[in-house]
């Protein structure tokens, strides 16, 4: 099977390395072309800057898009599908925007469009979700979807180091996006959550407009110490519920008690869970970022194509509507401004430097926090777990 890799960054290089090790079933795979940027000097015989030469090469069976970003990735994926090449991508940003179009064009051209590596890196999450959907409706998804932010929060928790120092370490380890704001501001989680929701509810939604997102940019060492005193650990979560004809989705820092699996998900690991009627809760854990785990998932998709393994068909026929008040949470807020008036409908209680508010619809909480951030751009919030007897809150 002949493969063209578009892009030779962290993931592209990993795909090349694993295929060239020719271990087990990867012996059947061959990298024929690697697309590099126009002004870059080729240092491998497979390298070219000519996308048309790749598209017009009849021997290329699979195009692996690992350029990242929206354009030209979108345009190349569509062109490859129209040239009857199977396409595999790890690029969550482009899938989240164009999943419906890629699905339609791949169907029209009788080729596959697979993207296991785009969510959860090396974890077989999409495969697990699709498998659950063969039997069950899935009505809850929640996940630590971003390796960089998990690495940052875990390092801060373990070492007490400040945010910027540990962000630099994540960049050096190859976990972070080229622009790490996607990792720390929750955009990357939003992309991965939307891709998961698209599959789970057979509904195409984009990570813009309504989706409430609050990242971890503002978290401090003092916040970490405070959460620790409460016996809780903070994680950046993507969460979606579906009830009746409605669904919601949110990206926000979320506190877990120390005995929750989420609290024990360390380093760059991801932990993604689904709830299905007969299967109950299923949790998938593994390395959610990094060169070889992500490349491994790309190659699993190539092998699925090689072995004619069909993935779930998507039709996007569902009519579920987004409801911003479907879920209500308690939240802890840190801000320099007095916002007890702003939150007065939600039983605000001052706890030292923090304010705890109760039973707030998720969409409303994010609207109110936007107003807080206009006056105090250092403010931070996290949702609280359900209260336990005797627990500090
Ligand atoms: N920057 C991403 C992360 C890479 O940290 O999870 C994997 O999608």
TrEMBL record:
<dbReference type="GO" id="GO:0004412">
    <property type="term" value="F:homoserine dehydrogenase activity"/>
</dbReference>
<feature type="domain" description="Homoserine dehydrogenase catalytic">
    <location>
        <begin position="124"/>
        <end position="303"/>
    </location>
</feature>
<dbReference type="InterPro" id="IPR036291">
    <property type="entry name" value="NAD(P)-bd_dom_sf"/>
</dbReference>
<comment type="pathway">
    <text>Amino-acid biosynthesis; L-methionine biosynthesis via de novo pathway; L-homoserine from L-aspartate: step 3/3.</text>
</comment>
<dbReference type="InterPro" id="IPR019811">
    <property type="entry name" value="HDH_CS"/>
</dbReference>
<keyword id="KW-0560">Oxidoreductase</keyword>
<keyword id="KW-0791">Threonine biosynthesis</keyword>
<keyword id="KW-0521">NADP</keyword>
<keyword id="KW-0915">Sodium</keyword>
<protein>
    <recommendedName>
        <fullName>Homoserine dehydrogenase</fullName>
        <ecNumber>1.1.1.3</ecNumber>
    </recommendedName>
</protein>
<feature type="domain" description="Aspartate/homoserine dehydrogenase NAD-binding">
    <location>
        <begin position="7"/>
        <end position="116"/>
    </location>
</feature>
<dbReference type="InterPro" id="IPR001342">
    <property type="entry name" value="HDH_cat"/>
</dbReference>
<dbReference type="GO" id="GO:0050661">
    <property type="term" value="F:NADP binding"/>
</dbReference>
<dbReference type="InterPro" id="IPR005106">
    <property type="entry name" value="Asp/hSer_DH_NAD-bd"/>
</dbReference>
<keyword id="KW-0028">Amino-acid biosynthesis</keyword>
<dbReference type="Pfam" id="PF03447">
    <property type="entry name" value="NAD_binding_3"/>
</dbReference>
<comment type="similarity">
    <text>Belongs to the homoserine dehydrogenase family.</text>
</comment>
<dbReference type="GO" id="GO:0009088">
    <property type="term" value="P:threonine biosynthetic process"/>
</dbReference>
<dbReference type="Pfam" id="PF00742">
    <property type="entry name" value="Homoserine_dh"/>
</dbReference>
<dbReference type="GO" id="GO:0009086">
    <property type="term" value="P:methionine biosynthetic process"/>
</dbReference>
<keyword id="KW-0486">Methionine biosynthesis</keyword>
<comment type="pathway">
    <text>Amino-acid biosynthesis; L-threonine biosynthesis; L-threonine from L-aspartate: step 3/5.</text>
</comment>
């Amino acid at each position: 099977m002949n493969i063209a890799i578009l892009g030779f960054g962290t993931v592209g290089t990993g795909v090349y390395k694993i295929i060239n090790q020719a271990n087990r079933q990867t012996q059947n795979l061959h990298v024929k072309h690697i697309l590099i940027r126009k002004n870059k000097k080729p240092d491998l015989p497979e390298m070219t800057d000519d996308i048309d030469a790749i598209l017009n090469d009849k021997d290329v069976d699979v195009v692996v898009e690992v350029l990242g970003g929206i354009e030209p990735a979108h345009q190349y994926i569509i062109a490859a599908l129209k040239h009857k090449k199977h396409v595999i991508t790890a690029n969550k940003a482009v899938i989240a925007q164009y999943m419906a179009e890629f699905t339609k064009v791949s169907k029209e051209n009788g080729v596959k469009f697979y993207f296991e590596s785009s969510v959860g890196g090396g974890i077989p999450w999409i495969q697990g979700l699709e498998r659950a959907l063969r039997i069950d409706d899935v009505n809850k998804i929640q996940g630590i979807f971003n390796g960089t932010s998990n690495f940052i929060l875990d390092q801060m928790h373990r070492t007490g180091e400040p945010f910027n120092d540990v962000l630099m370490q994540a960049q050096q380890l190859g976990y972070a996006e080229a622009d790490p704001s996607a990792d720390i501001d929750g955009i990357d989680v939003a992309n991965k959550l939307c891709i998961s929701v698209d599959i789970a509810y057979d509904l195409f939604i984009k990570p813009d407009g309504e989706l409430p997102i609050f990242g971890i940019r503002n978290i401090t060492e003092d916040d970490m110490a405070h959460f620790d005193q409460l016996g809780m650990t903070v994680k950046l979560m993507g969460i979606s519920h579906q009830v009746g004809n409605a669904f919601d989705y949110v990206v926000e820092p979320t506190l877990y008690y120390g005995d929750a699996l989420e609290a024990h998900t360390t380093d760059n690991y991801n932990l993604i869970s689904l709830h299905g009627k007969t299967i109950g809760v299923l949790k998938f854990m593994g390395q959610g970022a990094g060169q070889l785990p992500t490349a491994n998932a790309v190659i699993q998709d190539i092998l699925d194509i090689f072995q004619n393994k069909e993935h779930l068909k998507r039709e996007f026929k569902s009519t579920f509507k987004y409801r911003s008040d479907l879920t209500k949470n308690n939240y802890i807020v840190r801000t320099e401004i007095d916002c007890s008036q702003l939150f007065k409908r939600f039983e605000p209680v001052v706890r030292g430097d923090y304010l705890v508010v109760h039973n707030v619809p998720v969409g409303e909480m994010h609207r109110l926090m936007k107003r807080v951030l206009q006056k105090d751009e250092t403010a931070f919030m996290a949702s609280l777990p359900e209260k336990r007897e005797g627990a500090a809150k």
